[in-house]
Write a structure and sequence with these properties.
Blueprint (H helix, E strand, L loop, with lengths): L1 E6 L4 H12 L4 E7 L4 E6 L5 H10 L3 E3 L1
Antiparallel strand pairs: 1-3, 1-4, 2-3
Bound molecules: copper (II) ion (CU).
Length: 66
């Protein structure tokens, strides 16, 4: 289980966008995004390059935070 903190989400549409962006990545499944905490969790069926995760989130209009 991997988890990342995402900055910039403000509503359910943001959650959907992030869920879609992560779910589209090769090796990622079972994406869950919590709007309140801003934390996205997912299973990695293959090793997923953190840079690709970062790029997908950025492309969707959000930021990966700490
Ligand atoms: Cu939104």
């Amino acid at each position: 289980m991997a988890s990342i903190k995402i900055k910039g989400m403000s509503c359910e549409h943001c959650v959907m966008a992030v869920t879609k962006a992560l779910g589209a990545l090769d090796g990622v499944k079972d994406v869950k995004v919590d709007l309140k905490t801003g934390i996205a969790t997912y299973e990695e069926v293959n090793t997923v390059d953190p840079k690709k995760v970062d790029a997908a989130i950025t492309k969707a209009g959000f930021k990966v935070g700490k």
